[in-house]
Write a structure and sequence with these properties.
By secondary structure, the chain is an alpha+beta fold. It has five helices and 13 strands.
Length: 269
């Protein structure tokens, strides 16, 4: 008769208990094909990374294998943990939801969208094309030894714009312009003036003080201005006669440079 010692009985009991336990997963059983299948099935990245880290096996991937995994849709983050599963991982924060604001209000004048982006004033002759007005300096009239009709006005400052006529030509009658005055100017700073042609130039009476011009009433022409889009204005000029005109910018003079001001010129055919 066989006699079992107490120690043998304990060992036998432990062996029997372990034999009845379910088999445990062994590290290193996850394959590249498994990772690829999970990725193609749309499994979340953090779940795949958790499987890779639990697998605890670093995949020795060559460059061709890495490129193949990327081509098949495996993310760079997953590939990084496949090559080194021991590094710490924290799931990325959820994407911030951006609430769209109300749609931008369309301009009151569809043509405003077609006005050139450059600062300036543009004549609209109709259709979709715009004619850009030239920005011209106004300088003091100096003609030694000669007397012009303006010089007969005692003490008045006379400004001159070079050129007998403006490049931009406008049809007779009411005219429409569009303006981008820019950040350094406002439409309230512009005044529409008529110029007096004289010997290859066009003259303008500034009154007695160049810095504070008082233009003759007959030289001033009213026009309407309406902002049709942020930074873009539609200018409606009344019918004016044939001649030369200037959208003069008040406060644009520079005494040190001998400049009385500047403005955008045009001529009426």
């Amino acid at each position: 008769m066989i006699r079992w010692s107490a120690a043998c009985l304990v060992v036998a009991a432990l062996c029997l208990a372990r034999a009845q336990e379910p088999p445990q997963a062994t590290a290193g059983l996850l394959t590249i094909e498994d990772v690829l299948s999970l990725s193609k099935a749309g499994v979340a990245e953090d779940v795949i990374i958790a499987r890779v880290k639990h697998n605890a096996k670093a995949f020795d991937l060559n460059s061709d294998e890495i490129l193949a995994l990327k081509k098949d849709g495996v993310s760079e983050t997953v590939i990084k943990y496949m090559m080194d599963p021991s590094q710490a991982y924290s799931a990325p924060p959820p994407p911030t939801t951006v609430r769209a604001g109300p749609p931008a209000k369309p301009p009151s004048d569809p043509l405003a969208l077609k006005v050139p982006a450059e600062v300036g004033i543009y004549y609209w002759p109709g259709g979709e094309e715009f004619v850009q007005l030239d920005l011209k300096p106004v300088v003091p009239l100096k003609e030694p030894g000669k007397m012009s009709k303006f010089a007969l006005i005692k003490g008045h400052v006379i400004g001159s714009v070079v050129g007998a006529t403006a490049m931009a030509r406008v049809a007779a009658g009411a005219a429409t312009f569009y303006a981008r005055p820019g950040e350094k100017a406002a439409m309230e700073d512009f005044v529409l003036l008529s110029l007096e042609p004289e010997k290859g130039r066009r003259n303008l009476d500034f009154g007695t003080k160049a810095g504070k011009p008082v233009f003759p009433a007959k030289s001033i022409h009213q026009f309407e201005s309406k902002e049709v889009m942020p930074g873009v204005y539609r200018l409606a000029a009344p019918p004016v006669g044939k001649g030369e005109y200037l959208f003069f910018l008040l406060g644009s003079g520079d005494e040190k440079k001998g400049l009385l001001g500047k403005g955008y010129d045009f001529g009426v055919k």
